[in-house]
């Protein structure tokens, strides 16, 4: 199967070490609306830190399956997603915040790993992406309205929490064209920060269904908007479908950080965000209910599309639905 895409997609690159100026604000606003994806630089995460996480994680992924399966999916811990859950070529290790060290250590303990370096580097990475998420979220709120970052950050987003997924993609040995490393999905998060290695393969789907490559670039992280923010913003911010395609016979490695609302949060787009001339697209819903909906509909598979936030809480005032109901 050939996964066609157009090369490459030009996404704005945001310098997160600087305050937003008006031109970066408008390109960020356009990217959030059109693609739900953009890139960041000067994020303070060194290549060295990434390389350490890469080599320590590789040691874990290199263990025999029997050892890794002690971490999940059918064990108490559930930090490991083995091959053949999301895709035959994908496995993943989850590290939860805010105490990333404790989470990583609990996996290491089960594996009988004594060295504390794994949990130390993940704590450092986790704390850094957590701080970055707060900065980026405020930038995104600024695209919705003047002063919205002060108006809504504390009241709506201050209890957000994050978790990391360390992703390892192993292409099939007989790969001749391309293979799907991770199928089309949307993220459930408010926002996701991705560190992809130089192999590439991350693709985003345009509004008209074309797959676009997100070319890796050294020193650059990819940020994308997830379902929680799409619903909260009444679709002024887009949670795009994306996937990973494997084109080379080499392993691919990525780190994805998901910054999410707290489980008990009720997501309801504020009137001012919806705007007077628009109608609210989503019914209010509890975050955990959506997460459970996704998990229960996946039938064990990983974040599959078709059961996204629109299927769950959409169409509050959808005239089609109303007429369908009326005719029943
Ligand atoms: O591996 C990647 O580059 C992206 C992974 C991804 O989309 C996810 O984990 O949700
Ligand atoms: Fe994703």
Automatic annotation (TrEMBL):
Keyword tRNA processing part of the UniProt annotation: no
Keyword entries, A-Z: Iron, Metal-binding, Oxidoreductase
Entry-linked Pfam families: 2OG-FeII_Oxy, DIOX_N
GO MF assignments: 2-oxoglutarate-dependent dioxygenase activity; metal ion binding
Tagged with keyword Zinc: no
UniProt domain Fe2OG dioxygenase: residue ranges: 160-262
GO annotation, biological process: coumarin biosynthetic process; response to molecule of fungal origin
InterPro entries per record: DIOX_N (IPR026992), IPNS-like_FE2OG_OXY (IPR044861), IPNS-like_sf (IPR027443), Iron_ascorbate_oxido_reductase (IPR050231), Oxoglu/Fe-dep_dioxygenase_dom (IPR005123)
UniProt record similarity statement: Belongs to the iron/ascorbate-dependent oxidoreductase family.
Protein name per the record: Iron/ascorbate family oxidoreductase
């Amino acid at each position: 199967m050939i996964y066609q895409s157009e090369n490459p997609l030009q996404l704005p690159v945001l310098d997160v070490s600087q305050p937003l100026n008006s031109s970066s604000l408008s390109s960020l606003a356009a990217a959030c609306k059109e693609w739900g994806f953009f890139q960041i630089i000067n994020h303070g995460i060194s290549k060295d830190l990434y390389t350490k996480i890469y080599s320590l994680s590789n040691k874990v992924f290199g263990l025999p399956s029997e050892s890794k399966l002690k971490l999940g999916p059918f064990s108490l811990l559930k930090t490991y997603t083995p091959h053949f859950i999301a895709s035959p070529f994908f496995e993943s290790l989850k590290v939860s915040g805010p105490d990333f060290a404790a989470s990583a250590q609990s996996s290491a303990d089960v594996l009988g790993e004594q060295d504390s370096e794994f949990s130390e580097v993940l704590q450092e990475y986790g704390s850094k992406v957590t701080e970055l998420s707060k900065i980026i979220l405020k930038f995104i709120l600024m695209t919705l309205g003047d002063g919205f970052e002060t108006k809504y950050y504390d009241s709506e987003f201050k209890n957000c929490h994050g978790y990391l997924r360390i992703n390892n993609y192993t292409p099939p040995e007989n790969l001749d064209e391309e293979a799907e490393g991770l199928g089309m999905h949307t993220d459930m998060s408010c926002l996701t920060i991705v560190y992809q290695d130089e192999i590439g393969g991350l693709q985003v789907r345009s509004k008209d269904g074309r797959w676009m490559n997100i070319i890796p670039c050294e020193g650059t992280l990819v940020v994308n908007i997830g379902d929680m923010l799409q619903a909260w913003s009444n679709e002024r911010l887009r949670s795009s479908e994306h996937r990973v395609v494997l084109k080379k016979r080499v392993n691919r490695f990525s780190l994805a950080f998901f910054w999410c609302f707290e489980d008990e949060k009720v997501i309801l787009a504020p009137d001012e965000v919806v705007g007077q001339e628009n109608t609210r697209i989503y019914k209010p819903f509890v975050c955990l209910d959506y997460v459970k909906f996704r998990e229960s509909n996946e039938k064990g598979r990983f974040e599959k599309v078709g059961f996204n936030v629109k299927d769950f809480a959409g169409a509050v005032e959808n005239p089609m639905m109303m007429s369908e109901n009326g005719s029943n």
